[in-house]
Every structure is written in structure tokens, then in C-alpha cells.
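Contributing new records

If you add data, match the layout below exactly. Sequence lines come first and carry their own label; structure lines follow with theirs. Keep one chain per record. Anything else will be rejected by the validation script.
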Amino acid sequence: MDSVRSPEWPPAPLSGLSANSAAARYGTPAGATPATGRAAPPTTPAPPAGLRHGTPNAGPGRSAPPIPVKILVAGGFGVGKTTTVGAISEIAPLTTEAEMTSAGIGIDDPGARSGKTTTTVAMDFGSVTIDRSLKLYLFGTPGQNRFGFMWDDLARGALGALVVVDSSRLDDCYPAIDFFERAGLPFVVGVNAFDGRLAVDLPSIRWALAISDQVPLVQFDARDRLSVRDALLVVLDRALDRATRDRRD
């Protein structure tokens, strides 16, 4: 029987009537006269080269599922982590937003320019398919220090991280950068361009954060899907580069 496919996966190469035709299923020549009476069972063509007999991927119209890759989206409070995940996720993102109350006054400071009224109290989650072979699972970390105990669990199994930075509040991103440097996890610093501009230029931000030239520093807009995509592709490239060096060593 036909397999059931997750709706967010890319469709199989065959589609429409041709996907359900005898030619697609059994290799029956197009235009052949249907057999009458008792006919021999159809002959199934040999599987394509590279597919092993008995594997779930063997068979016409089927492809291997994409490889899952876990990426963290981290940073200080109110820098745009939830917005980043929501902008690119192809599913309705899971968020754990709670209303900010008077108890957080003097503790949770989203910045003077922010109209933020909620805060992430656990994590954000979303996913996006890069291509047929790769699917990203995004985990947004909480930004407040009191939720720092969750970072070790969220980082387990991750291949890389995007550290989101507000150029007007650089102090808030120091804990995230220190965490990933200690953990040895490849990361990229993404400066969120609030209102389309930065408070200071990228070279000045690199100097202030004291990050090496090997750490990519990019500008992006957390509200724009394509801009977030480009930032995440830099994270993937950084993680791949680290994995390649580790394999050589």
C-alpha cells in the first residue's frame, strides 16, 4: 500500500495521474493493450542502483527522509529570539510566552525601544526544511539568567547556535557567547537590525564582544524570513566546517 508522508516534507518527484499509473508502479509500457482473462502478475523492475533491498526508501516515487539538525537560537532578553524562530518556522511555532508582571520590574529589561509585554519562560520551538536532505529543528532559549539552568539540556545534541544580539544592548549577549565558547559549540553572532539599522557598526561590535575572526558576525532582520534563512545557513556552514576539521584531526 502507499506510504503516508508528513505534510511538511517535499513532495515525491512523481505527481498527479502519472504517479498512480501502471507505468509508474510496474514499469508497464505506455499505450500497451490491457490484458484480458487470466494474466501473469506484473513484473516489478529492479530497484535503482544505490538502494538496498528491503530498505524503506526502496521503490519508485520514494525518497529518504531529511536529516534532522538541531540548532539553538540564543541571546539576551528581548533581542528577538522568539521572532526569529516564528519568522522562518514552517509549522506553527511552539512558544512558552507569559505576560510580564510588576514582579519583573528591575529584573527583566527589554530595552527602551521595545514594546515587549511577554517573556519566554521555557523555550521556543520551530522547524524548517532546507531541502530534501536537510531539516532544521530550532530551539529558542530563554534570555533571563534565572532560566540559565535549562541551557545545558537545550544544547544537548545541537550542532550549532545563532546568538542574537541587540546592538544597543551588547552587555546582554555576553553570557550566551561565554556559554558556547565554554561548551565548544560552533556559533554565529547575528545582530538584529531593529528598525533596519544598527546602533554601532559590525567591526565595533566584534571588538566590543571580543570574539575571534573565526566567529562569523552577520547582520539580519529577525522579522524577515529570507534574512533569518541566510543567518541560519551561516550557522550550518560553521557547523560543517567544524565537523570537517574534527574528522581530519
